[in-house]
Each structure stands twice: as structure tokens, then as C-alpha cells.
Design a protein that fits this description.
This protein is α/β, with parallel strands linked by helices and about 220 residues long. It has a domain of about 110 residues: Glutaredoxin (3-Layer(aba) Sandwich), CATH 3.40.30.10. It is built from seven helices and five strands. Helix 5 links the parallel strand 2 and strand 3. The chain starts with a helix and ends in a 28-residue tail after the last helix.
Length: about 220
């Protein structure tokens, strides 16, 4: 087909449209305006249901339901898992555990720390399975002086205290290395004879246990 015939074919459509409008005007009908092409409406996104807690490690089933309802650091925990908010409280807890020959695990954490969040349900499960040990949780941001004195340089950090021997181990503990803590617990929870009270807390030697302090 030649260029001229193509151009003529392209002009047929507007001419035909004009002819239809003229016929409608002659018949006394209002000229119909050509419809604009309609755009396909975008489907509104479906509301997504709240997703379940997604951690790098599996969450023990006994804590999973509560874990999805409250902030992770406010979850229900066994009675031998306690928050510590001051140096004096930590000294008191260590002294009481030393007199009872009880192994103490101290964990430094932060509410924004994803590694701490992943570790929490495993620590809760450990406390539930081992009522003979004590777990103390310390929020590192709110106890910076204590963190510095105990040389806590990363989170989560776990310290083990064993009676009169004081601090026996310290480690940064991602949830993927939880077996390292379990091995340490087995190593230090063996029966021992405590020959004295818990030693002073490093950096806070002047802080004495309140239950052991005598008044004149």
C-alpha cells in the first residue's frame, strides 16, 4: 500500500465521526460526545493479618502465645527469673544465692536488641527447666555504670556467678550459641561446698549485702 493510501485510510475515522454528529443534529438529537477511555481501577490492598513473631530461632511453644501479645521483655517468666534494677539489688541477690549454693546467671540486655529478643524465650525455658538456678535480667541502657564496671561491651552478655567463687564465666551469647551456655550451666551447677560468702562485686566493693549488714 502506498503512503497516500495509508494517509487516506487514517482520515476515514474522524470523517465518519463527523458524519454521525451531523445526522444526530439533523434529527434534533444532541450530539453525543465520544466517551473517554476508562482506566482500570486498582484493587485496594487487602489488609494483612498480624504476623506471628519471626525470630532466627524457634520459640518454645509454652511461651509462644504470650510472646505475641506483650513486649518481649515483659513476658511472663518463671519465678526464678527476676529483673534487677540496681547495684544493691544485684549484690543482695548474689549474696543470697551464695549462701544457698545456687548458680546465678546474669544477662545484660536492651529492649531494642534483636539478639536479646531472640534469646529471651530460651532463657525463660532454661529457668523453667532448672529451678535450682537463678536468672537475673539487667537492662544495660538503664544501668550503664554497672555495665561498664562488669566490662559488658556487647549485648546480649551473660555472666555466671558461683557461690564463693564469684564470677566464673562471661560471654556474649547469640541465640544460635545457646548450647555454650547450657554446657557452662552443667559445668558450674555440680555440687560444691561453699567455704565463704560471695566475693564483692567487681567495681562496687563498698556495696554490702543488706541482709548481711549488722547495725550497732
Amino acid at each position: 500500500m502506498s503512503t497516500l493510501s495509508v494517509s487516506a485510510a487514517l482520515l476515514v475515522v474522524p470523517a465518519a465521526g463527523t458524519e454521525v454528529i451531523k445526522r444526530q443534529q439533523q434529527a434534533g438529537k444532541p450530539a453525543a460526545c465520544p466517551r473517554r477511555p476508562t482506566r482500570a481501577r486498582l484493587a485496594a490492598p487487602r489488609p494483612q493479618s498480624p504476623s506471628s513473631v519471626n525470630n532466627a530461632v524457634s520459640v518454645p511453644s509454652r511461651f509462644r502465645n504470650a510472646f505475641a501479645q506483650k513486649p518481649w521483655w515483659r513476658q511472663p517468666r518463671p519465678s526464678n527469673m527476676t529483673d534487677v534494677n540496681s547495684v544493691q539489688q544485684l549484690v543482695d541477690e548474689l549474696a543470697a544465692s551464695a549462701s544457698a549454693e545456687q548458680l546465678v546467671i546474669v544477662e545484660f540486655y536492651a529492649t531494642w536488641c534483636q539478639g536479646c529478643k531472640a534469646l529471651f524465650p530460651h532463657m525463660s525455658e532454661l529457668a523453667a527447666q532448672r529451678p535450682d538456678i537463678k536468672l537475673l535480667l539487667i537492662e544495660g541502657e538503664e544501668n550503664k555504670a554497672l555495665s561498664r564496671k562488669l566490662e559488658v561491651s556487647g549485648l546480649p552478655t551473660v555472666l555466671l556467678f558461683c557461690g564463693s567463687e564469684g564470677r566464673v564465666e562471661q560471654m556474649q551469647l547469640p541465640a544460635s550459641k545457646f548450647d555454650v551456655l547450657l554446657a557452662a550451666v552443667d559445668r558450674w551447677s555440680a555440687p560444691r561446698c561453699s567455704l565463704g560468702p560471695a566475693p564483692p562485686l567487681p567495681g562496687f566493693e563498698r556495696v554490702k549485702p543488706r541482709q548481711l549488714t549488722t547495725t550497732a
